[in-house]
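// run 5 | inverse folding | seed 20
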């Protein structure tokens, strides 16, 4: 990283390994909707399976649906094969909307944080070396977070790791902006500086790649994040710059 390049970083799967916390929050929230799910600790076996299906999830609240499917005995393969249909069916059966789930997911996290912040932080570890890297460039203010996570949760995790980032440099779910829209704004804000976008989700990078107006943004595929071997192969074929955690930390 250097001070002339603007670095736009995804959060979950690039900065933070939040899969376990997301699974637990999803379980807690799901148990409030479906009474047959025990209001107890999420089974470790389902948390382990959740990590395998995590690459298909775009926004955190979908963990509620994923944990429900896993509880019902759906295999990871079945979830990948029919994800949209299966999640839509759950929404219709429970008579809830995605907005309902977003609020429930956020409220469930807020309750956990209010009751045991250290435990919540512990379930959201940063990837090895990332804390030190972001601390080192923090004074330069040449990086942004672009995420589908609610911004207050990003702020709490960064603060807990003594990483300074101004609020206006965190673009989260609250802004109702897609990642391509945020990147377009950054191109306007920084017209004379190169922009690199580091993202671990292949569909997100493919969506950015489709837009001619974002052709100046260099797209980096975070291989350490929530993606599959198939994703890695496609990302390489599409010409994305393949970025390992070791290279990211240089």
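// decoded
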């Amino acid at each position: 990283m250097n001070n002339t390049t603007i670095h736009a970083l995804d959060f979950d799967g690039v900065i933070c390994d939040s899969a376990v916390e997301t699974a637990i929050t999803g379980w807690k929230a799901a148990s409030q909707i479906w009474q047959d799910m025990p209001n107890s600790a999420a089974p470790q076996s389902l948390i382990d399976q959740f990590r395998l299906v995590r690459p298909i999830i775009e926004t955190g609240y979908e963990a509620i649906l994923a944990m429900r499917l896993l509880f019902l005995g759906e295999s990871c393969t079945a979830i990948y094969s029919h994800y949209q249909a299966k999640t839509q069916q759950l929404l219709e059966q429970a008579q809830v909307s995605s907005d309902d789930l977003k609020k429930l997911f956020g409220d469930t996290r807020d309750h956990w944080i209010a009751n045991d912040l250290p435990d919540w932080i512990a379930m959201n570890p940063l990837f090895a070396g990332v804390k030190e890297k972001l601390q080192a460039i923090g004074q330069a203010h040449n990086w942004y977070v672009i995420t589908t996570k609610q911004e207050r949760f990003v702020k709490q995790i960064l603060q807990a790791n003594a990483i300074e980032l101004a609020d206006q440099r965190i673009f989260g779910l609250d802004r109702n902006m897609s990642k391509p829209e945020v990147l377009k704004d950054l191109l306007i804000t920084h017209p004379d500086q190169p922009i690199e976008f580091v993202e671990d989700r292949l569909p997100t990078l493919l969506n950015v790649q489709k837009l001619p107006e974002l052709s100046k943004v260099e797209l980096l595929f975070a291989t350490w994040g929530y993606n599959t071997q198939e994703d890695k192969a496609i990302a390489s074929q599409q010409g994305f710059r393949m970025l390992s955690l070791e290279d990211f930390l240089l």
